[in-house]
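Hey team,

Sharing the 12-oxophytodienoate reductase run so nobody has to redo it. Sequence (329 residues) first:
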Amino acid sequence: MGKFELSHRVVLAPLTRQRCLGYVPQPPMILLYSQRTSKGGFLIAEAAGVSDISQTSPEMLGIWTKEQVEGWKPIVDAVHAKGGNFFCQLIHVGRVLETGNTVSQTLKVVWAQLRQHSLDRVGLGPLFGRVFDGVEIHGAHGYLIDQFLKDEINDRTDEDEYGGSLENRCRFALEVVDAVVNEIGGDKVGIRLSPFANYSESGDSNPETLGLYMAESLNEFKILYCHIVEPRMKSVFEKVDCLDSLVPMRKAFKGTSISAGGYGREDGNKAVAENRTDLVAYGRLFLANPDLPKRFELNAPLNKYDRSTFYTRDPVVGYADYPFLETTI
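Structure output:
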């Protein structure tokens, strides 16, 4: 994957866990990520906010202050010590902070605030001087960028350069990509998209066309990868049967493709074998099985995840206490 030498195709998906204090990473995260690191593996950290207006609660991660960046360092060091590759997912939640407002109402405020933040102000300068290997831009799941992309939530008009036409709705996402690429280089940048999903009222009337346009447009910036959520994942925790496919996006995008969304071992292998993706991202299965790549290799039994512990504040239970294969056989 670009300059990154990977030993397998099993990616740790970004997983919100709400174990932070004041947006600052905490020591238990060192164990969480270290447990899930294998030599030559690829991990994407849970979403980190880029400013003090970008997250929904102080239990969520941030990376816009020196204290937050310092909190990330030992976590990344632990991943690197085991030979892993580690990207940070950057997020702004947008109108999720004020559910009920229209996009135009919320984004007028957000846009004015974002204009006041330089890239150094939101942490990208110190971030790449000393910490992560790259970043993933969160452009999915009804958050800020996705709110611009989707025509069922973006209520701006054709008179506005960020609303109306497909090209206008995609403008903000591509401007964000351009800004990050100019700061750190496209070989360290990925993006996550979910054109078929409808999170937080962010659906689209023609997701196939939206996804294809974004995939083609991203080639201009020569970014490392495009991380795409499968069409079957329509909303939170909902997996449905559908005929839609990511293959057109896969064929259009010239970088590495990562697919996510309800995969197991067999259908993940099949997606790679049929050249529908390069890598497969796993969330809940990787959470419950810190040695997931090894279990997949051996076709070993899997631990079951406990959904009730996903978003609790406990730094151990349901977080770093899932057993390894050696302790279960």
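The chain is about 35% helix and 15% strand.

Ping me if you want the raw files.
A.
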